[in-house]
Design goal:
Layout (H helix, E strand, L loop, with lengths): L5 E7 L1 E2 L11 E2 L5 H18 L4 E9 L7 H14 L1 E12 L6 H10 L3 E7 L3 H6 L6 H13 L5 E7 L6 H13 L4 E6 L7 H7 L8 H17 L3 E4 L2 E3 L6 H7 L4 E4 L4 E4 L15 E5 L3 H9 L9 H5 L4 E6 L2 H12 L6 E2 H8 L3 H4 L1 H9 L3 E4 L2 E4 L1 H5 L1 H12 L1
Parallel strand pairs: 1-4, 1-11, 2-3, 4-5, 5-6, 6-7, 7-8
Antiparallel strand pairs: 8-10, 9-10, 12-13, 13-14, 15-17, 16-17
Length: 409
């Protein structure tokens, strides 16, 4: 059996401005911390690389926040630190998230030279009024130019992020956004229905009646429209919210959905490590440990800079490592529930043989009630040995996922 590479996530918490719908661990107005932050990230990367025995990386993803807001010299510096701490595969997918307004040709060329070979551009909409409402700092024209510039800079793998189900969004403006996105010929699209999280300005405005609540039926119609138009343009849906040309799926996100081991560095970053083939961390066992770093950037930097890794790599040691704030040992029941919840997001679904090989029993043996209910409700179907979401089930995926998580406890 071949060695299982790690997926590495690098969190960049800086934003020039904070969008009113965003509840990610991101901050505006702290750009002065960038030099010290990059140094702390280097220290964390070196520590994990040394402690894990310099494992292979199959993918790297710089997310945030706005990684493109970070000076390119710092992005290059972090890529050097990654290569020193880990074995980066020659064919590794290395993604950077970017705001369209940051996509000057010289900047993108510098990213390519640093080793980034995939770019995810946060377009969200090609309607200027919607972009203003979302608090974005670019307009539709800049988004179109950003894609063309990324292509000229040498990026052969370009992904666009889109949002639907917005307050006061019309089907016609969404159809225009879809048309514009597909006309650009990018290899990958991600599209998410807006979820208003508590504590965000947009959620407060909606609760106070200053913004209307989104129409779920209209959002479902928008989703179906994108599905049809993406397929017509040659992009296949491979996950609930993602479409790609053949061979251009996101390797990094597939690692999450297939419950493969991943490491996150930076404030608030999450990780899941277990003894996958070739990783050599037997003490973590087959299910391993999930853990997350402290969220405040200053606290993260202070804790990471004081960290000197060493000794046996086990769950107790990880809980006290670096800036780790919370850690949880994963048992078989939790692993089984997560395997179903994440795997069902994929169009391929969960292979019955793969589940049995990993857990020693069949899906319907382990989850008789969740499976039967979802089949009866038309959320799931069996197809060629796979349990997968139906077309209608993709619109109601959380109804299926929650049943497996509940029964898995």
């Amino acid at each position: 059996m071949s060695a299982q590479p790690l997926a590495l996530y690098v969190h960049i918490p800086f934003c020039e401005t904070k969008c009113p719908y965003c509840d990610f661990n991101t901050y505006a107005g702290i750009a002065h911390l960038m030099p010290a932050y990059v140094a702390a990230l280097e220290h964390e990367l070196a520590g994990w690389g040394r402690w894990l025995g310099r494992p292979e990386l199959g993918s790297v993803f710089f997310g945030g926040g706005t990684p493109s807001f970070l000076p390119t010299r710092d992005l290059a510096r972090l890529m050097r630190a990654i290569r020193e701490a880990f074995l980066l595969r020659e064919d590794a997918e290395v993604t950077v998230e970017a705001n369209p307004g940051d996509c000057a040709r010289e900047r993108l060329q510098a990213m390519r030279r640093a080793g980034f070979n995939r770019i995810s551009i946060g377009v969200q909409s090609f309607d200027d009024a919607e972009l203003v409402a979302l608090g974005r700092r670019h307009d539709a024209a800049q988004a179109r130019v950003a894609v063309a510039t990324a292509r000229l800079a040498g990026f052969e793998r370009i992904s666009l992020d889109l949002m639907f189900g917005l307050p006061r969004q019309y089907f016609s403006t969404w159809a225009h956004t879809v048309e514009e996105a597909l006309a650009l010929g990018t290899e990958h699209l991600s599209a998410y229905a807006l979820t208003l999280e508590g504590g965000t300005p947009m959620e407060a405005d909606t609760r106070a009646g200053r913004l209307p609540e989104a129409d779920p039926d209209l959002a479902a119609e928008m989703y179906r429209h994108l599905q049809a138009e993406a397929v017509r343009a040659g992009l296949a849906q491979y996950e609930v919210s993602n479409w790609a040309r053949p061979g251009r799926e996101s390797c990094h996100n597939l690692a999450y959905w297939r419950v493969e081991p991943y490491l996150g560095v930076g404030p608030g970053a999450h990780s899941h490590l277990y003894d996958a083939p070739g990783l050599g961390i037997e003490a973590l066992g087959p299910w391993g440990v999930r853990f997350a770093n402290a969220k405040p950037p200053r606290a993260y930097m202070e804790q990471v800079n004081a960290w000197e890794p060493g000794g046996p790599l086990d769950a107790d040691a990880i809980s006290a490592a670096g800036a780790v704030e919370s850690a949880e040992a994963v048992d078989a029941a939790m692993a089984q529930g997560e395997f179903m919840m994440m795997g069902l997001r994929l169009n391929e679904g969960v292979w019955g043989e793969a589940f049995a090989a990993r857990f020693g029993m069949g899906i319907e043996t382990r989850f008789p009630h969740a499976t039967a209910e979802c089949l009866e409700l038309g959320l799931l179907e069996w197809a060629d040995g796979r349990l997968r979401l139906t077309e209608d089930g993709r619109l109601l995926g959380n109804e299926a996922f929650s049943r497996f998580v509940t029964e898995g406890r």
